[in-house]
From TrEMBL:
Record-given protein name: Phosphoinositide phosphatase SAC6 isoform X2
Gene name of the encoded protein: LOC107799584
């Protein structure tokens, strides 16, 4: 079904990295007879050479095996080569192995830094600290043989000429995590070394339904246009690209048939943010509200071009700060709603509460018509198109994590049942729940999917994951949600600022420079948040007050014990941090921003 790229353009699958004092040499060792790649350690310049240079007592190289070259990043005074040092095979996609990046490493090409001014050296050291953070980026996947950035439907629709192109040229730039870092290598025409990498999730399993074996794969593809961390990347930019935009594709293979169903999630497409200020839930701020209709229109124009019809499900609260944001979203959608774009608000917390997620059936009843009419992608045993997916469901809450994943897993379950009836495997009233092994594996599949997406955006697994994993809420799940909520608070305030800078550095969202009138230690980033000791002290006292208040109410409702633990933990966490970091919070290296 999915042809490989032209063999002459095949990617190298295993290489040897030679570290000479003045250069790096990447030598293919997978049986290919291609050229070696030489990279200067002085300025990062690249060229192909026929063989590895001779070693000598003066030029004794270090040697290690690498599994891919991700790209090259240029900083102030040096360039840095990023390579995959460890990989793990996690499954297959249309018969081709899929690998997860287990470890990656930057190799410096910065010998010219020796002659740089002291100020520039200090700045470079700060950026190097960000590269250390970037090396721990989670959820990176790649294939040497098949294009992971495209859904099954888009892969099938590639023209014959496109299928012969190198994988990086076939790729959807939105989901190419290393798009920016590949630019230097593209300029040097290094196709066999250009490995497309996707950030997201990849899980699959097999299960028996009677005598039939079904193979189910769930893929997440994270968009790189407005990527970032939970509190530091919200809403949309002026071009309509939104934070935490993820395409989820559920693929089944059964009796020679292949079916694919795509959903998307993404932040509310307005210009809004939440400035980190040490409060548990910072205030929502909508900026340039007059531009809202134009930004929303751009976002949905792009969705319709790529996916066809769009049904937008807004899961946020009807009241409070979320309600105000939802109201502005609904007003802006009035300029977009039509035959090919629809909007539905569903107050998840009001209708489902914290435990009655089975009430999502109310939502499904409202969208069933769109769901059925817009279908899914289906190929028969001969690889011929039988069905096309004509539209997409776009789901959002505030973070597009917890409520969104519960909702998307419900839609994925409904679609799988719909497809199995279409293929004659299920009777008209038969459901996944009547097949315990399939049911359990499917729940785990979506729970892991949600956890992966959540870890990349918030730093913790998804909340409400126990419902997705077990089909009902559990006491352990509620306690785990409390801990994860506390962890998110800590990460949002004290860790994610630096992580956001690292992400922006890798994605090329900043232009690096050293102003003559500014020293690194005194720089203040436009979005950098600093908190004083009195504020921290007030928060500690407030936390202790609510903790004691909750403890007094335990005899009336045991849930107050959990609330007391949460407030006490927040107070202790802030106190410990203040003690260790007396002067300030959120101490981030400053970058000069070119675009958000």
């Amino acid at each position: 079904m999915m042809e490989k790229a032209d063999p002459s353009q095949k990617l190298y699958t295993r290489m040897r990295l030679w570290e000479f004092p003045d250069q790096y040499v990447v030598e293919p060792t997978d049986g290919s007879c291609g050229s070696c790649l030489e990279i200067s350690r002085m300025d990062g310049s690249m060229k192909l050479i026929d063989e590895v240079p001779e070693c000598s007592s003066v030029r004794v190289p270090k040697i290690q095996t690498v599994f891919g070259v991700i790209g090259m990043l240029k900083l102030l005074a040096g360039s840095y080569l990023l390579v995959i040092t460890e990989r793990e095979c996690v499954g297959s996609y249309f018969g081709h192995p899929i690998f997860k990046v287990s470890s990656m490493k930057f190799f410096p090409c910065d010998h010219s830094l020796k002659n740089s001014p002291a100020e520039q050296k200090n700045m470079e050291a700060q950026f190097l600290a960000l590269l250390n953070v970037a090396e721990r980026t989670p959820g990176l996947y790649f294939s040497y043989d098949v294009n992971l950035t495209l859904s099954a439907q888009r892969l099938h629709d590639l023209g014959d000429e496109s299928k012969l192109l190198p994988l990086w040229r076939q790729a959807d730039p939105r989901f190419l995590w290393n798009n920016y870092m590949m630019e230097v290598m593209i300029d040097n025409k290094l196709d066999p070394f250009l490995l497309p990498v996707v950030q997201g999730s990849f899980h699959n399993f097999q299960s028996a339904i009677g005598k039939d074996i079904i193979d189910i794969t769930l893929i997440a593809r994270r968009c790189n246009r407005r990527t970032g961390t939970r509190m530091w990347r919200r809403g949309a930019d002026s071009d309509g690209f939104v934070a935490n935009f993820v395409e989820s594709e559920q693929i089944i293979q059964l009796k020679g048939y292949t079916a694919s169903f795509v959903q998307v999630r993404g932040s509310i497409p307005l210009l809004w943010n939440q400035i980190v200020d040490l409060t548990y839930k910072p205030k929502f701020e909508i900026v340039r509200i007059i531009e809202a209709p134009r930004v929303v229109e751009r976002h949905y124009l792009d969705l319709r071009k790529k996916y066809g019809n769009v049904l937008s499900i807004d899961l946020v609260n009807k009241h409070g700060g979320e309600g105000h944001l939802s109201e502005k979203f609904a007003n802006a959608m009035q300029h977009v709603v039509g035959e090919d774009a629809k909007y539905l608000h569903f107050d998840f917390h009001h209708i489902c509460g914290h435990v009655h997620f089975e009430r999502l059936s109310i939502l499904y009843d409202q969208i069933e018509d769109f769901f059925i009419k817009n279908r899914y992608f289906l190929l028969n045993e001969k690889g011929e198109k039988v069905e096309l997916q004509l539209g997409v469901v776009r789901t959002n809450c505030i973070d597009c994590l917890d409520r969104t994943n519960v909702t998307q897993s419900m839609l994925g379950r409904k679609m799988l049942e719909f497809q199995l009836r279409r293929l004659g495997i299920f009777d008209a009233e038969e459901t996944i729940s009547s097949h315990p092994n399939l049911d359990e594996s499917f729940k785990i599949l979506w729970a892991n999917h949600g956890d992966d997406i959540s870890i990349q955006y918030s730093g913790t697994p998804a909340l409400k994951g126990d419902f997705v994993r077990y089909g009902h809420r559990t006491a352990q799940g509620i306690l785990t949600d409390g801990w994860n909520a506390l962890t998110r608070y800590y990460l949002n305030n004290f860790v994610d600022g630096t992580k956001q800078d690292a992400i922006d550095l890798l994605q090329g969202h900043y232009i690096l420079s050293v102003p003559r009138d500014m020293k690194p230690s005194s720089q203040k980033g436009g979005i950098e948040t600093k908190a004083s000791f009195p504020i921290a002290l007030a928060l500690i006292m407030t936390g202790l007050f609510f903790s004691l208040l909750s403890l007094r109410k335990v005899r009336f409702d045991l849930r107050n014990l959990l609330y007391a633990m949460v407030w006490a933990s927040i107070s202790l966490g802030i106190a410990a941090f203040v003690r260790a970091n007396g002067r300030m919070f959120c101490n981030r290296p400053s970058l000069h921003q070119s675009k958000c």
